Structure formats: structure tokens, C-alpha cells
Amino acid sequence: MLYENEKRILQEAHLMLERYNLAAYTSGNVSLRVDQHVIIKPSGIPYSKLMYEDMVVVGLNGEVVEGNKAPSVDTATHLHLFNHLDWARSIIHTHSTFATVWAIMEKPIPVLCTAHADVFGEEIPIAEYAPVGSEAIGKSALKALRKSGTVLLSKHGVLIIGTSVDDSLKKAIFLEEVARVSYFSSAWGNPTSLSNSEVQRLFDQYKSKYGQR
Ligand SMILES: [Zn+2]
Predict the structure, then answer these.
(1) In the chain, is it the N or the C terminus that has fewer CB atoms within a 10 Å radius of its CB?
(2) Full-prediction pTM beyond 0.90?
């Protein structure tokens, strides 16, 4: 079997989506790029039944390299992004509730709290509506995408691009948290955003000083 270890990492990542309430039943998916291949969730398999052996390996043009199941319907979206972003190693797509509320309202998420500045360093942009199942979502996401590698998909959900599975997972979890606190504070009143210079300062500081060296 190709990429057994990577498939196990992906299975665990999908279970994390469920544990953090970011995905329901069969929605959402995580992919991982290894060289010229992308490993991705099979289509329509609920998380409780998802086995690592079921993960599908596809080439960068979408041909199935290994796997008995059909790959996720969002595979074309993932491939479009991997084909255009050298640094991308893992992509997550979810319909996580609060982030999707912002996507439905077609409002970028402003930088209202320090955690947002730390992890994303900018407001979360929104991509124009595009239908599921072709490269259209990947194209519109690419147009809207900036440095955070995170984008809201109009009337749909979110796409998160990371340098590793851990990186994309972390951003997916923080995105929902940020979307939630920003939703409640915006529902309460009209919160002001952090200044651009403070957002940049926090972002740089978080990269260089946070966590274990
Ligand atoms: Zn979706």
C-alpha cells in the first residue's frame, strides 16, 4: 500500500474535525500532498466508518493512482490549489457553523481579537460563489486567497490551506473559534477592528515567539 503512514495521519485529522465539531457526518475533507500525489478522503463515507485504507491517492491531474473508492467530490478544488500553490501541503474543507454563517452573509471576518491576528494576520477574505464538483471553487478561492491561506466560500463553507496537516488543522480549529467570537461581538454591537499595524505586529510576534523553541 502507498503512503500507509500518511493515510493514518489523514484518518486522525478527519476524526479531529469531528471532535472539534467542524464537520457533520460525511461533509468536509482533508487532503495531503506528497510529491506528485495527493491523498484525499473517499466520497460520502461517514467519519465513524472512515478507515485509513479507504483514503484515495490521486495524481495532480486527478487520475486515481490507488484506492477502491471514488475520491471526494471536492478533489478538483484541492488539486487546483495544489497545482497553483507551491507551498501548499494540506488542504481542509469544512462547513463549520460560525465560519459558514459569515460565508452565507458574504462578509469577510474582520480582525477583532488578538487570536485572529496571531494565527491569520489579516481579515478572512471571501471567494465568489462557485458550484461544487469542478475547478470553479478552486479558481474563485485562489483569486480571493491572501497570506493566511484561509478563505470563506460564498454560501458554502471554508477552505484552509496549510504547510502540513497539523498547520491546516490548527487553522481550521482557530477559524471556527474566531468566527464564533466575532459573530457574537458583532451581534452585540459594532466592534472596532484591531489596527493593521497591531495585527501585523501580533502576527510577527506569534510566529517568532509563541510555543516551544
Ligand atoms: Zn462543501
Answers:
(1) C
(2) yes
